[in-house]
């Protein structure tokens, strides 16, 4: 059985809205699918509950963790297996990839979120989010240019 992305998105959105209304969970504006923020909240929730700390969480994550990141990971893994596209690839230097990943997530949290959240905040009319989206675009283009020139 094949499910189109449109049908999957519509069903997911409807179920999310239904569950939000049913459990009266109201996340902050533009918190929809923010990989950086949801990862931060998941890690902070685990650390808070395991060690009794009080690391910062979004109000929606105080009682139960937001498992968006886990769901996206599992969904992508299942889709890759179903479509026979799953391949394990060896990176050139795993340590550099790990460090770059840490930098990306930290810079995303410093600027207020990942590109999806920045786009949502821009749609809400947030000028700072718009400026950070432009800066992110310029940074990606500049870094890509430098990388392509160095590696070609």
UniProtKB/TrEMBL annotation:
**What's in the keyword line of the UniProt record?**
Membrane, Transmembrane, Transmembrane helix
Q: What is this protein called?
A: Cytochrome c heme-binding site
In its UniProt entry, the species of origin is given as Methanocaldococcus fervens (strain DSM 4213 / JCM 15782 / AG86)
- Membrane spanning residue stretches: 63-82, 94-112, 127-148
On the tree of life, the source organism's domain of life is: Archaea
Asked if the keyword Transmembrane helix belongs to this entry, the reply reads: yes
């Amino acid at each position: 059985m094949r499910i189109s992305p449109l049908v999957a998105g519509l069903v997911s959105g409807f179920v999310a809205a239904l569950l939000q209304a049913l459990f009266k969970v109201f996340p902050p504006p533009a918190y929809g699918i923010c990989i950086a923020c949801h990862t931060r909240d998941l890690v902070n929730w685990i650390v808070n509950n395991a060690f009794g700390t009080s690391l910062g969480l979004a109000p929606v994550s105080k009682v139960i963790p937001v498992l968006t990141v886990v769901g996206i990971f599992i969904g992508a893994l299942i889709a890759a297996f179903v479509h026979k596209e799953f391949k394990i690839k060896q990176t050139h230097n795993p340590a550099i990839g790990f460090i770059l990943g840490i930098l990306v997530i930290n810079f995303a949290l410093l600027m207020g979120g990942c590109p999806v959240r920045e786009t949502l905040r821009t749609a809400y009319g947030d000028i700072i989010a718009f400026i950070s989206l432009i800066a992110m675009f310029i940074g990606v283009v500049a870094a890509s240019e430098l990388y392509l020139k160095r590696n070609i």
